[in-house]
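#struct-help
A.M.: can someone run this one for me? Single chain, 643 residues.
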Amino acid sequence: MDFFARQAAARRQTRWLLWAFLLAVAVVVLALDTVVFTLLSMYQEGERFVSPPEFAAQYPEAAIVATLLILAVIAGASLYRSIQLRGGGGVVARSLGGVRVDRNTVDPKLKRLHNVVEEMAIASGVPMPEVYVLEQENGINALAAGHTPANAAVAVTQGAIDRLSREELQGVIAHEFSHVLNGDMRLNVRLIGWIAGLFIAVIVGRTLLRIGSRSRRGGLPILAAALAFVVIGYIGLLAGRILQAAVSRQRERLADASAVQFTRNPEGLKGAFVKIGGLSEGSRLSALAAEHVAHMLFAPGLTRRLLSTHPRLVDRIRELDPRFDEREFQRVAAAAARAEAAGAADERAMAMAPAATASAASRAAVPAAIAALVGHPDTAHVRHARTLRLALPEEFREFVESAGAARGLTLALLLARDDALRARQLERIAATLGHEECAVVQAAAARAEALAPSLRLPAVLQVFPALRRLSRPDREKLYSLVREVSVIDARIDVFEHCLAALIAHSLRDELDARMPHGGGSLTDAAEALGVLFAVLARVGAADEVAARRAYEAGLATVLPMHRPSYATWPDWPQRLDAAFEKAVRLHPFAKRVVVEGMTKTVAHDNQVSVEEAELLRTVCAILQCPLPPLLSEVHSPQSTVRN
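D.P.: on it. Structure tokens below:
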């Protein structure tokens, strides 16, 4: 199953789970109605006791009000929890006691963790997530949370950091990144909000128990109602666990398989599983919130739980190694101390391992092969990502840790090469942020200009953890400023404009937690796709004739019957932004066709420069189709390289 099929499956599963949740709510509401109607009938002075159906028939207004009130409480609890989670994956990580890991940490184990996550992000082509460590947790576990890759966070327990080798830690992080790429995170976060609504009856019941225990008159009926509320609440919790289990088991198997494809090394992931089975702490979490995030964890976080959210550990290991012997758990337990002592040596060995050499340019891409890479990085991309990470200047660290400096670098990356245009951009920045902040942008400009084309996209994706630390008003102001700066003049470079669009779209995703894909068809977006392909066609074309041919070659794949005629426009930045807004709402399968078509357009002359390859990756990132770096392995051997 490729990226686009997984995204479509996640959408279908979301709809199915929504109906299941509504059914569970209906059952809980009916049960609570029965309790409330019984309680109310007992307090009707001077009247005999009536059954709940009789009460509803005699007092329909009271029955309707009670039902609406119960629905409002359930919906309110779900909405309140969902609003809390709109802050992104960091909210979930902090609820478990997570502490954010800075990029410039001096702790070697935390540095190793941050480097692994950074390499995975670069290889995947997604924004760098925030990194958290659960310092109080000695078990081996991890999770990825967030509505979109733009507001994602990865949290790893202290036990995993202390006990896993770099190879094993890489397998765990690859597993979590597969959840980021597969669209699992958004579904998992939604489940937390839904389950909060189903569990609210328990909270109400406990409150009634306290009231009933203090009441001298009429306390027994209140206590009985409170007990009924608690029982019904736990029935709702059971329904929530059924939903969790329905989501988690299959998605965990898929994430395991994706992680192996990511690293091409099943031994790393297997080693993490074996240590979980062999060590006394296993994968347990002690945080009170572990129940609510059980379906998001790398491995089960609760020892005793009806309806497990994960496949059996032995089954997961045997998916990786059919010859696995369970006696290996005992061997791992006995060798735990030696494994910890060898951790530092393992890190040094991995650091000295030769990394894949970054291609100076890529060759003519095979469109279907490129589309298949979306959301499917492998070991070569991880090694290439390590090369890119090391290639980023050392002083780059100051920009990814300070929110103000990250904003300055972000805007500096968008500054035009033309002096007059740059002056207008800086004037606009100073008017919005002030002259002091504008000076920060100017100071970062030299470093931004020095970045090679292959480093500009990774640089943009790496600053997002720092940008998330801006206040919401500051992020909204930055979003507006990025849009304004990028369209000041149509002479701006296409690559720079697409970087601006990527930043703007990612900021919008982070602020609004928008759905990554829609249900739009290619025909509905025909005009927008015409603009997108026309702009791409002109980037690498020698003249208008070549651009027209590249346009037709790519768009014919997307719209074989009826397509817009090739055209150019003086206001192409504004048109391109509008085209992006339309293309983002396409169905995942439609996006796969668009990616194949864009690849044909960019590679029509059988030559793809680094700039063109990075432009293609940037546009794919805007469309929420993260594309790994284009390496020589996926390119046609007969093509040539343009320097």
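A.M.: thanks! The chain has four domains: 3-86+189-248, 90-178+249-348, 362-378+517-634, 391-492.
D.P.: also worth noting: The chain has 29 helices and six strands.
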